[in-house]
Design brief:
single chain, alpha+beta, FAD/NAD(P)-binding domain, D-Amino Acid Oxidase, Chain A, domain 2, 2 domains, eight-stranded mixed sheet, 9 helices, 19 strands, about 30% strand, globular, binds flavin-adenine dinucleotide, Monomeric sarcosine oxidase, flavoprotein, FAD-dep_OxRdtase, sarcosine oxidase activity, FAD/NAD-bd_sf
Length: about 400
């Protein structure tokens, strides 16, 4: 359902041959382990800086086996998770816009971002509404507030509880996730970055003479290392005492029938917190694939990302569809597609981006906790800055320090 981004990249066999040949030859300024969401952005920013850069991934570009697939990702500034994210979200909007301008040189190329607006709904004291209001107040964000009647008037399909309110952020929307990863990689390649797909990194070590990254196809050397391995991160961070829990998440697309077409077309992104704390979101139909409706809460623990069970989780689907029966009335829905993805949860639900405590030339970004894609251009940029010896107090709240014992 998404374009194949393997065009112009090597087959697994050719990748292996190339990796074997390259491994002994070159010394890079930076090696990036994993080129999904964060890794692709890190490669772009490093290549833009003029660093010689190598990205290695166990799969291909914009693949569907990690955490950066499934057509769309929500992007918003009115951040219920914490007001500290708001300046980063503002920067992310600018960085996506910059990437989009470089990427979209022909009118037929699809934009990376769709400004559909985001409507967040819940009781005033819910985590979502309370958090959105706090961020909006601290950062002077302009939001429109709606009663259930006003929401019903604008979106008759939505059945909003009488004691809930809606907060609408018109500038927000969603990103085309695979296109974003592919655009970062294409722009990185244009600036000289080298990519090796279908090559599994086994481990890395740092010595006086620099860094070595050992893969199943050979060993690569560099001055610096960025670990962007998503749900697989823990295996590259031995000895760092952080808790990371991987959970499986299901993404579902539905054909919605029996509603007037205009309600589907005009639909913004909707994020609802129910009174029992369950959170669901709907992303409008894109490219005729149906409306995406998913449960943000819940999900099963994945012991090993290599062994992720990709079968449809019937219990999750039942809860999702019960939500649709309740909240999307005057409609009939039919599941057209599901896909399994992973959230890598940190202990407090906030990202972890930092330098390695023992090796200043190694940086990592992990624990994106199911809300990190929108920030990937910012995280990629900060990874490169950190590896260049710079500090940025804006991301201090995401550093390892918060887990250190006093
Ligand atoms: C269902 C779902 C919905 C989401 N919705 C949103 C949303 O609406 N908005 C939002 O902002 N965020 C959202 N997120 C979160 C966001 O998508 C993720 O946090 C983000 O994409 C993770 O990027 P990453 O680079 O950490 O991981 P990935 O993109 O998975 O990249 C990790 C890469 O490392 C590679 N790798 C791992 N191990 C090795 C190895 N040994 N050798 C070589 N390569 C390796 C993998 O193959 C992979 O390509 C959602 C996530 C999911 C799953």
């Amino acid at each position: 359902m998404v374009p194949d981004y393997r065009d112009g990249t090597l087959s697994p066999a050719d990748s292996k041959l190339l990796a074997n040949r390259m491994s002994s030859l070159k010394h890079y300024d930076l090696i990036v382990i994993g080129f999904g969401g964060v890794g692709s952005a890190t490669l772009y920013h490093a290549a833009k800086k003029g660093w010689t850069t190598l990205g290695i991934d166990q799969f291909g570009p914009a693949h569907n086996k990690g955490s950066s697939h499934g057509q769309t990702r929500i992007i918003r500034k009115a951040y219920f998770e914490h007001p500290n994210y708001v300046p980063l979200a503002e920067e992310a909007f600018e960085r996506w816009d910059e990437l989009n301008k470089r990427h979209r040189t022909r009118p037929e190329t699809k934009p990376l971002f769709e400004q559909a607006g985001v409507l967040q709904i819940g009781r005033p004291e819910s985590e979502v509404i309370n958090g959105v209001l706090r961020s909006a107040k601290e950062h002077d964000l302009k939001l429109e507030q709606f009663t259930p009647e006003q929401i019903h008037h604008r979106l008759p399909i939505l059945n909003v509880q009488p004691d809930h309110i809606g907060l609408f952020e018109p500038e927000a929307g969603f990103l085309r996730v695979e296109h974003c990863v592919a655009a970062h990689l294409a722009q990185a390649k244009k600036r000289g970055a080298e990519l090796i797909s279908d090559c599994t990194v086994v481990d890395w070590n740092a010595s006086e003479s620099g860094l070595e990254v050992r893969t199943e196809n050979g060993t690569f050397r560099a001055d610096r290392l960025a670990i962007c391995a998503g749900a697989w991160s823990a295996r590259f961070l031995p000895g760092i005492n952080i808790e990371l829990n991987v959970i499986s998440k299901q993404q579902n697309w539905y054909q919605i029938d029996r509603i007037e077409q205009k309600y589907v077309n005009d639909f913004p992104v909707v994020f609802i917190e129910e009174d029992d704390g369950e959170q669901f979101y709907c992303i409008p139909e894109l490219d005729s694939h149906g409306m995406k409706v998913c449960r943000h809460t819940g999900g099963d623990v994945v012991e090993d990302a290599d062994g992720l069970d990709r079968k449809v989780d019937q219990d999750d689907l039942n809860r999702n569809e019960a939500f649709m029966d309740l909240r999307l009335h005057h409609s009939k829905h039919r599941l057209v597609h599901s896909s399994t993805c992973m959230y890598t949860m940190s202990a407090d639900g906030h990202f972890i981006i930092d330098r390695h405590p023992q090796h200043a030339n190694v940086a990592f970004a992990t624990g994106l906790s199911g809300h990190g894609f929108k920030f990937t251009p910012v995280l990629g940029h900060r990874m490169v800055e950190m590896l260049d010896g710079q500090c940025d107090s804006q991301i201090d709240f995401l550093s390892l320090d918060r887990f250190r014992q006093v």
